[in-house]
Amino acid sequence: MQENFQEVFELAGEYITLRNLLKVSGVADTGGAAKLMIIDGEVEVDGRTELRKGCKVRAGQKVSGDGFTIHVVALRLTQA
Description:
Elements: E1 5-11, E2 16-17, H1 18-24, H2 31-39, E3 43-45, E4 48-49, E5 56-57, E6 62-65, E7 68-74
Parallel strand pairs: 1-7
Antiparallel strand pairs: 2-5, 3-4, 3-6, 6-7
Helix pairs in contact: 1-2
């Protein structure tokens, strides 16, 4: 992962679990690595340390840690 990784993640559903968000955004290579990051207290949701790997992250929230920030937004639907 690159230093100061910034991403805007477009959420298609109501929520994504913290563990899956870290995995699909590339912050963690595997779900196991994401789990360890969370358990070790390396991840914050809206500025607060989050220790629950199943934490539901919704649009409008910010997930961050050492060298990364993910802004979660609602999926923008485009009309043809």
